[in-house]
Amino acid sequence: MTPAYFDHNATTPVDDAVLEAILPYFKEAFGNASSRHAHGIIARRAIDKAREQVATAVGVQPAQVIFTSGGSEANNLFIRGTADNLKPANICISAIEHPCVLRPTQELARRTSERWVMQKLGVDNLGKVDVVAANDVMKQHKPDLVSVMLANNETGVIQDVATIAEIARSHKAWMHTDAVQGLGKIPLDFSALKVHAMTLSGHKIYGPKGAAALIVDKRLLLKPLIYGGGHENGMRSGTENVPAIVGFGVACELAKSRTEATAKHVSQLRDHLEAGLQAMDATIFGLGATRIPNTCYFALPDIEGDTLVVRLDKAGFAVASGAACSSVKPGQSHVLEAMGVNPMLARCAVRVSLGDSNTLSQVESFLEQTKRIVTELKGMNSVTM
Amino acid sequence: MTPAYFDHNATTPVDDAVLEAILPYFKEAFGNASSRHAHGIIARRAIDKAREQVATAVGVQPAQVIFTSGGSEANNLFIRGTADNLKPANICISAIEHPCVLRPTQELARRTSERWVMQKLGVDNLGKVDVVAANDVMKQHKPDLVSVMLANNETGVIQDVATIAEIARSHKAWMHTDAVQGLGKIPLDFSALKVHAMTLSGHKIYGPKGAAALIVDKRLLLKPLIYGGGHENGMRSGTENVPAIVGFGVACELAKSRTEATAKHVSQLRDHLEAGLQAMDATIFGLGATRIPNTCYFALPDIEGDTLVVRLDKAGFAVASGAACSSVKPGQSHVLEAMGVNPMLARCAVRVSLGDSNTLSQVESFLEQTKRIVTELKGMNSVTM
Q: What pTM, to 2 d.p., does this model score?
């Protein structure tokens, strides 16, 4: 048995090079970047460098990077920060957004005053936003804000953000994409996606938790979520988390340089994994759609996802059941619901998300263990039934 | 010459024991605390332990701790989060609050709809909130929200939060204190201060940047700033920054155990420092008021603060000039303004904030260097004049 971490869409271990880069900033170079003395200047320069690294990773200028504490904060900053600068109007988001886009949008639509109207852009049965339908919705409702994620965290399905952005722009809407699951997995370019804002996160790409960014078009008018000392050009106050930002910068540099090699490696593993799962009668969600190369979201008939996750954990494999990082609807994936997946099958959903360090032997071991567990569970069912 | 870091109110180096505690959470125990597998469970337990440590440090239950990414976020969470659950009314804050309390309050008062009315509670010439005047203001304006910091970051002056809280409560207001500069410097007890909410921060007490908390009375109704997966009991969504939270927990434990010894040590150093500065005709702001024991805020006549900070930095001493971590009014301290300090003298303000590792020899060296720099600067002035 070769135990393995197969949950890289949830979080990743910090890369050795990243850890080495951040360590000096805890004790030796611990200054507050707002201080005017040498300690502060060293911290400020470290942040400047990281800002360049992040900007380079997605082809923007450093001044377009607003550092935040995480992807959730960055998504909330776009949704609420942009909305608070506009008269309440229509906001369109895809039906499969992460809760940190969905929920702030719902909150805008729930206000007692200055209430927004939310429309959801539906997906097809592969989990891809239906661009024709999206066009109709936007034509009818003329949104001021649109947010569609680049790659879904559960299915891995890549959305046609550039086309949706063009439609959004034709209605003079501000367009945002949550690209947290895209960075490091597929080539990423801010301009090519035609968005006004994009969310990136460090801990999904072998960087530390605690640093992320909202990348913005300079014309975007934004109000901060956090007011105070005026950090991040007034858009995000608070003492900068220097080590996390430094690590995020290095992780972006590594992600950019490794995207191609990683994609090749993990897609081979995934093909092998999915062939094995299909031989066990698994349904692979999003199969046939263009997906990020590391993600396999599957269901084995009559094997509850939560149960399989726990059993696999005991066998040394870390995987996620449907919508693991959400408590919106415990036990139910809003993504699979939007795809029209039968609720009985949706309960069986399990996500494997591969990473650089995973091996073919781990995948083979995973398939063996899954087969064993399934046999055991089916045996138990037949005994108890 | 013995160079020294004298800017502990801005930030502190991470303690060795804290660094040791957080290191495993970057690579080995890197899990997402929301994951249901072993990696996630280890991360969740680490957060639970840190929550207990933070709670214990201020005498509350773990469930009263809401982790945030920093003190600025925690202060914004109280101001905006509580206001958004109330009908717009009056909010009172002291005239010497940190910008991360002042600015979100100004923003409430600037809204196009649901606008709040802000009143400032003035301070006397020592920088202490005038309780009699505060009583009059609250009697007249009947606030729903009140925020008064425990210890001012510039002067170190400790406020009579408990008495102000009693007045606030008599008007049925929700009372908050920013206790970021109090923790680890003076004994701290949530109940004794009679507040409904209190802000703490890790990086001011030898913990890492990126973790802080809003401590809340369970009856306080709050709306989150960051919506999403429902972390922190729904009050602060986003993948938890496990290493930073772990470090914050350990730092709280250390701060509590060391408060008395640290206070004794740094107050001796400060007495020596202030005697030396007074011999150089310095004004010590807040002298005579009860202050946190590590802070000395002084002005040497005709020596501009910014200039002295730069010169001292070259000599190896890290100190801050007035309002270093704010860009509200560059070059001018709103704290000294509120105290009625002559603007010419306020321009000369320099803050020394001492810490555990500072020594008497560093203080003596600092006094020598300051004397030398002052002599040089006065010489230059007389030449150019």
A: 0.96
